[in-house]
Amino acid sequence: MKDITRRKFFLGTFLAGIAASARGALGAAIPEGMRLPGISPQAAAKSARPLIISSANGVNALGRGMDILKSGGDTLDAVLAVVNVVEDDPNDDSVGYGGLPNEDGDVELDASVMHGPTRRAGSVASIRQIKNPSKVARAVMERTNHLMLVGPGALRFAQAEGFEAMILLTDRSRLAWLAWKAQTTKNWAPGLDSPEWKEKLSMILDTPERLAWASHIRDVVLRPPTGTINCLAVNQKGDISGTTTTSGLAWKIAGRVGDSPIIGAGLYLDNDIGAAGSTGKGEENIKIAGGHTIVEMMRKGLSPTDACLEALHRVARNYNNDKRKLDKFHIFFYALNKDGVHGSAALWEKSYDGKTRSRYAVHDGSSARELECAYLYEGGSIED
Ligand code: ASP
Fold first, then answer.
1. Are 313 and 297 in contact (CB under 8 A)?
2. Are 182 and 218 in contact, with CB atoms under 8 Å apart?
3. Which CATH number do you get for residue 345?
4. Which atom number of ligand 1 is nearest to the Cα of residue 247?
5. With pLDDT > 90 as the criterion, what percentage of the chain qualifies?
6. Which residues pair with 245 in a beta bridge?
7. Alpha-carbon torsion 371, 215, 279, 76, what sign?
8. Residues 97, 284: Cα–Cα separation, whole Å
9. What is the pLDDT of residue 94?
């Protein structure tokens, strides 16, 4: 305990709704007794087609997807166009290139796709060296007789399909990993006999440019982040596709797979009903098969927002609604139905920073904007 406190001290020193909609999916009334409480701050979303939504980190890329939808393109092309921007972005450390690595310093990515009109799916898990795992998931779907490939087999398949293998660590994510190691073990820091003994992180952040990353690195070391992009789209005709792509939980054990590549958890859709996805603590989502749960709730008449809240109630029920445990993680659900009604709900009112509201991103044809999520509990998670 003392040692942990001391390590945190070093790091600090040196790095200084109540359901809103009265009508459910496809216009059906929500069955009495099915609506569970949560806090939904905005009026029920109007329906619009085409429509594309994502986790908040996709807001600047949604326009690309909408352009494809407006020009009559395929919904899977649209959602992939959005997430590929984030996968390619070295400054987004939760997805693709620049994603934070596992505890060994290897970036391992998970992704899934579903294509509503052809009722197909594909996914990859723990794939290394390929910056667009969502595209590989699509290739699994379109070019194999399988649905899911993992680890070295997924990499070999990707290379056979012409994907370029590359180093996915950026300078910043590598330094964040070294800082995490310096914090968690004495071995990756100067020894007692070193003049730099107390300055282990200044050894890592040794240039003004690197020092500028200090606050970001402090955050990701002290609160290992999760992060992902989920994107769902419905076109003019009512066809639906979705994708979820992630580098998973920072500093995870090699081989850990989250919910993002699990069809029925991080992503699920039925072209007759709607689509759902998730970001946040994947383990909690897998236990309730959140994506599938939400689509089935929409089938029974719940609105997307209510269905997301129902999934959150199941997550909370797994801990007997004990907020002292639930505040150790965060989780978001996103959904749209075939009519183009959208919704999202988060376990906590506040986002990861504990200050701003939990949000998701929507483009309904006019502009991309962030909207506040409904939520189950006020306040924010405190995460260990
Ligand atoms: N859901 C992802 C996972 O558990 C991480 C995240 O969304 O933050 O791998």
1. no
2. no
3. 3.60.20.30
4. 9
5. 66
6. 111, 229
7. positive
8. 25
9. 77
